[in-house]
Amino acid sequence: MAKTAKKEASTRRLILIGICVGAGLLLGLLNLIQFKPLLEAELYTRDLRVRFGQTAPLSPEIVFITIDKPTYQDILTEEEIAADPALAEMSTGSWPWRRSVWASVIQRISQAGAKVVGLDLMFPTPKDGDQELLQIMDQEGSRAVLGGTFEEVSNAGRTSVQLTLPAALASIGAPEISNENPAGRVGFVNLWPEKDGIVRSADYRRQFQDIPAVSLACRMLEKAGYADRIPATGSGILRFAGPPNFNYKAIPVYQLFVPATWEKVFENGAKLKDKIVLVGPYGNWSKDVIRTPYPNPMPGPEVHLAALGAALSGSFLTLPPFWTTPALIASAALLAFLLILATKQPILRLILLVAIGVGYAVLTFLIQDKLSLILPAVNPVLTLLFGGIGCLGYEFVLEQREKRRVSGMFSTMVSPEVLSYMQADPDRFRLTGEKRMVSIFFSDLAGFTTISESVSAEDLAKILNRYLTPMSDLVTKYGGYIDKYSGDAIMADFGVPVWVDPDPNSHAWKACWSALEQQERLQSLKQELKAEYGCDIDARMGINTGEVAAGNMGSDKKFQYTVMGDAVNQAARFEPANKPFDTHIMIGGKTYEMAKEKIEARFLANMIVKGKTEPVPCYELLAKKGELSETKARVVQLFEEGWKLHAAKKFPQAIAKFDEALAVEVNDGPSKAYKKICEGFLKSPPPDSWAGEYIQTSK
């Protein structure tokens, strides 16, 4: 008993380990293949940490000048508009403005002493003012940067990358944006989102086919003297300076040219001295918005500001080494297993699992917030929960199974089927019972005594269980009720205690089919038991149909639902009656009549059983309808012809027919048996009153 308990505990532990390891392997595999729902969930948790964590510091070196409206006509006075050509262009109501305006903007900011001014604007096609813009870029090119783009272009099924430069600088070509040209005056403004469409990082340098290009932010940092602040990898995960519209102060571009605001806001240019100035569209009118970790879209220039600020302050977020996620998943699986072992209280286990999962999520937030290290959250937590809850589910199943086993030990006075029926309609169960038409099944192992003497008691129990389990399953498969086991014998009833089939007489053919399938299953089981225990098993079966008394039989305190009556006794006699005929399944005449549309059988005998005077017709059950082989059908035909000759006392002719049958199938038991009977009658003829009856000499 102690060894068994120890083995069960060891098996339980191994299964729990298997569940936790399985959870870890599953999540590890999904992580390896970048399973989209998990990847998006992980990215979302990173975004939450960005939203609720500390923001990147606002760099005092950065100034953001915005084009917050397509026209300032409603803001500027007529005198202000007339005083400056740039303000006049800004008030026309026509967007885009002439490019001479941007030449004036660059000149104004550069002359104020800014380290660099970058325009997050595109000038792809030639327009009025290009000459002025080119002139100022030639003049202030060491501290001015314009925007360019790379676009994928498909042509004839092939995809290529197309560079678009400002029209004023297009004649110079790719060197303007190349990383190999420090004097270049263009940086790409492209922002590449991740698989879920959200921009979380900035590319400062990127290779486009044969062009090693730099971004707008990168070119501005280089010209401002901060090339060493640019990540060596060429890109970095951004810690934003705040949500959209709530980070760097936006100063409208027109204030550069209005004397009052130039003096008040810019302190006559002092506020721009030694600054990194970004000029770009701002507001809903521009449609230049980008999806970032924040819920609301962010104006494109603010992402470039974030790239500038992150480089200046070094406030990038970093990913851990590649082995971190597998290590955390493995740790989570181990922790799930240890938690299950730590306590036996399911509710406490669940609380601990959830608490640790939440605690780890909080830890990833704190580590990202304070140490700028992005730890995976989803896969480790799911491994912990899947492993832990999987173990809880397994233990729940074990607990329920144990409860059922204990319940079975104390409810053996009634079968589960009867118990359910009693619960549904307890008044139906009276000690007097009721008359029911049923089919009764008996089976018994041939030579069981010899088997029991050749194996140990433990092996004998195993053999019986191996035999009784599948046989019983095939009884219940066809609605049969296991009435009782008696050693190796099975008694089953078809038609009671309840029969749900619309055909009330289907119990006859279902009992036959159950017996046939049992014999079929027995053939493979025989080989298994022969190989394992060295014993040969065979089973004989008897089926009879008739009216019985069905109900609770026994005392008031202990009773068993069963059936009783002459039909039961006859079924019990049919089982051993197989032996002299060397058959396996014998059925009564009533069973045959009710089931003949579903079965193949041959008439075997008009049998006078022990203790009776009237003959009872019996048949050998051979197969389901339509499944009898042609050879067997021929044997049956010859046998039945021989039996009729035998019943007519034409014994020589009968022997000849039985010989014909045996020529077709040498081991046909009934033909052998009747040939022997006929040979006996040739020596000692039967009485004149005999009409073919077979007398059973033993029960």
Description:
- With 699 residues, the protein is of the alpha/beta class.
- It folds into 4 domains: 11-46 and 320-410, no CATH class; 57-314, no CATH class; 416-604 and 615-625, 2-Layer Sandwich (Alpha-Beta Plaits); 629-699.
- It has 21 helices and 23 strands.
- The strands form 5 sheets. Strands 15, 16, 17, 18, 19, 20, 21, 22 and 23 form a 9-stranded mixed β-sheet that branches. Strands 1, 2, 3, 4, 5, 10 and 11 form a 7-stranded mixed β-sheet that branches.
- Helix 6 links the parallel strand 2 (116-119) and strand 3.
- The protein is rod-shaped.
- The model is unreliable at 406-415 and 426-431 (pLDDT under 50).
The unreliable regions are 406-415, 426-431
Q: Can you give the helix content as a percent range?
A: 40-55%
Number of strands: 23
Radius of gyration: 47 Å
How much strand? 15-25%
Structural class given helices, strands, pairing? alpha/beta
- State the helix count: 21
Biggest sheet descriptor:
9 strands, mixed
Q: Span from first to last CA?
A: 42 Å
The domain tally reads 4
What is the averaged pLDDT score?
88
Q: Rough shape?
A: rod-shaped
